[in-house]
Amino acid sequence: MRHLLLGIDALPARPPAVAVVVDVLRAFTTAAWALARGAERIVLADADDEALELRQRHHDGWR
To answer: Which of 19, 34, 47, 57 could form a disulfide with 39 if both were Cys (CB 3.0 to 4.6 A apart)?
Structure first.
């Protein structure tokens, strides 16, 4: 598998057949909002099932 990491300004005239877009702006504004509303930490998960498992394991708070 071949992959490239490109910014918008570096995109070729003809884009590739498949592209993965990471929504950094939304991720960081959501994190800032959560922290401003009192979140003590943000824990990242690689997949939905990992996030659900973390929630189940720590449903009563982080220790």
So the answer is: 34
d(CA 22, CA 60): 31
Distance CA 27, CA 4 (A): 22
Q: Is 61 left (phi over 0), alpha (psi -120 to 50) or beta?
A: left
DSSP string, the chain: -------GGG--SS--S------HHHHHHHHHHHHHTT-------SSHHHHHHHHHHTTT---
* pTM across the whole model: 0.48
Contact in structure between 62 and 41 (CB atoms under 8 Å) = yes
Q: Identify the segments of the chain with pLDDT beneath 70.
A: 1, 15-16, 18-21, 62-63
